[in-house]
Recover the amino acids of this structure.
């Protein structure tokens, strides 16, 4: 990463504001990240959230873990993790 003088790339007013917090030290400004989070664009996150709610509901209504794992094609371990994640 290359050193850049703030006075060369930022407006003078902004440099003055930053100097109120940091003077003479290096400061890292992270890259702006405007990407959507996983599953938000395709709706996968919502689908999995709804599926997990159904799994928890079935368990609370007396269905056993083995039956639920076969119904959703998930391992019993995964079903337990889903159930325990919402307790």
């Amino acid at each position: 990463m290359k050193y850049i003088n703030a006075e060369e790339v930022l407006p003078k007013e902004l440099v003055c504001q930053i100097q109120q917090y940091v003077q003479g030290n290096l400061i890292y400004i992270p890259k702006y990240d405007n990407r959507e989070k996983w599953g938000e664009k395709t709706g996968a996150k919502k689908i999995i959230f709804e599926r997990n709610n159904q799994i928890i509901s079935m368990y609370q209504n007396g269905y056993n873990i083995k039956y639920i794992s076969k119904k959703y094609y998930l391992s019993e371990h995964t079903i337990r993790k889903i159930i325990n994640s919402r307790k």
Summary: The chain has five helices and no strands.
